[in-house]
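Q: What residues go here?
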């Protein structure tokens, strides 16, 4: 059973859509009648989420995407535009972590957390904002964990990314949009 709401027909991109909050977000938008473009690294998991969203009545496109790759995220934006003709909402939801003592956690794990949880969100915004400016509208939702605001002695890189990424991207779309509208 589906219900239709104010997002009926909206084109919504969700990164990190293969599980957790991303999956729940996709299902909520599907129930509300949105058209979904789901992205994450795991294509098979995305297909499972997409199947459930289709049962809920949502037209759904799956794009396996690694948000740490700026070109892949630009490709995601292009696929979303081809699918829906516009992008109304972009939910930047990727989040990874590693738990352990800082000095015992491999440096490569810390780097991957920073690439996904900080650079990935920047890549999402960098792909979405030009589309929103061209359209004259759009909503960018940057999911940040509360873990960034609490003491996290065994998740140093995760906390650092949440803190650094918690400042909002301020994009104002005045009646006449332009590059000077970025704050």
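A:
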């Amino acid at each position: 059973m589906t219900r239709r709401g104010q997002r009926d027909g909206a084109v919504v991109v969700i990164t990190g859509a293969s599980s957790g909050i991303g999956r729940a977000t996709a299902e909520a938008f599907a129930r509300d009648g949105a058209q979904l473009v789901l992205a994450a690294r795991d294509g098979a998991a995305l297909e499972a989420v997409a199947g459930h969203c289709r049962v809920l009545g949502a037209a759904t496109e799956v794009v396996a995407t690694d948000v740490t790759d700026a070109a892949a995220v630009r490709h995601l934006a292009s696929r979303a535009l081809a699918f829906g003709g516009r992008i109304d909402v972009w939910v930047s939801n990727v989040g990874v972590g590693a738990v352990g003592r800082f000095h015992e956690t491999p440096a490569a794990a810390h780097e991957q957390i920073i690439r996904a949880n900080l650079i990935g969100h920047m890549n999402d915004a960098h792909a979405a904002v030009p589309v929103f400016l061209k359209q004259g509208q759009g909503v960018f939702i940057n999911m940040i964990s509360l873990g960034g605001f609490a003491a996290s002695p065994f998740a140093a890189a995760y906390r650092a990314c949440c803190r650094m990424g918690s400042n909002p991207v301020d994009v104002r779309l005045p009646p006449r949009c332009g590059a000077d509208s970025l704050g």
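A: Context that may help when evaluating the design: The first helix runs from residue 20 to 31. The domain at 11-181 is CATH 3.40.50.720 (Rossmann fold).
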